[in-house]
Amino acid sequence: MDLGIRGRKAIVNGGSAGMGRSAALALAREGVELFVSARGEARLQQTCREIADQTGANVIPICADHSTDEGREKILASCPDPDILVGTCAPPPMTPDYRSITGEQWREAIDISLLSPIEFMRRVLDGMVERRWGRIVNIATVAAKYPGEIRVLSGSTRAALANYTVAISKAVAKHNVAINNLLPGMHHSAFVEEQFSERARTKGTTYEQEVAEFSREWRIAAGRFGDCDDVGAFVAMFCSEFANYTTGQSLVIDGGATTSTF
Description:
The protein has 2 domains: 202 residues, NAD(P)-binding Rossmann-like Domain (Rossmann fold), CATH 3.40.50.720; 40 residues, no CATH class. The two termini are 28 Å apart. The protein has 8 helices and 7 strands; from the N terminus they run βαβαβαβαβαβαααβ. The protein has a 7-stranded parallel sheet, with helices on both faces. It is α/β, with parallel strands linked by helices.
C-alpha cells in the first residue's frame, strides 16, 4: 500500500532504538528522507546504516540531545523544514514507590518528554501551515491515559503533552496539518529488554518468564508484549496522505491491558 509520502522529509527524534527506530524504518520503506536523532552516536550510526541498507532511503544521523536547546538547534539546522515530525525518547525508570521520585528526575522527565516536543512543534508548525502539509506523531505511553504508580513519572508528563497536542491540532487542521499521539503499552523495546533482563538475572529466571509474569499480573489480554515494528507501522499510517482527516487523536496500543469503551 502506497502511503503517498515518498520524497517527504522527516525528523525522527529518539530514533536509534525501540519504537523510534521502528518508526524511522517504516517511514524509510515509504521513501521518506530521514533525519534521525539520538544521544548515543555508535548505536545511532549503526541504526541509520542498517535502515539505509534495508530500504535505500537517505538517512542522516544527528547525534544530539533533543531535550536541550543546543540539541534542538543542531537537529533543526540539519532539517529546518520537515514535512513530518516524530518524537519519542527513552522512558524514565519505573516508579514502584512514588515517594522515591527525586526533583531531578521530575525535571529531566519534563524536559525530555514535555518541553522538548512542545518546542519542536512550535518551531516546525508555521512552515507546515505555510506549505499546507504536515504530520506530527508523538510516541508517548498508555500511562498518559491510564495512570499507574509504576509509570507516574512517565505518564504524567505525556498526559500534559497529549492535552497540548490535541488542543493545537484544532488550530492547524484546516491547513492539512495533522497531529496525533500513540500511547503504547509494553513492547519489546531496548528499555524493556534491559529492565526485564535485569529482573531475570536478579531472580534467577529468564526474560521470557518475567514477561509472562508481568503480562499475567497486569492482565494484558494478548498475553504478551508487543513488537516495536507494530508501533512503527501506525506511525507511518498517521504520517500518510490518508491521515488528512484524522487529527487530535491518542491511540492506545497495549494488547488489551486497559479497559475502556472509547
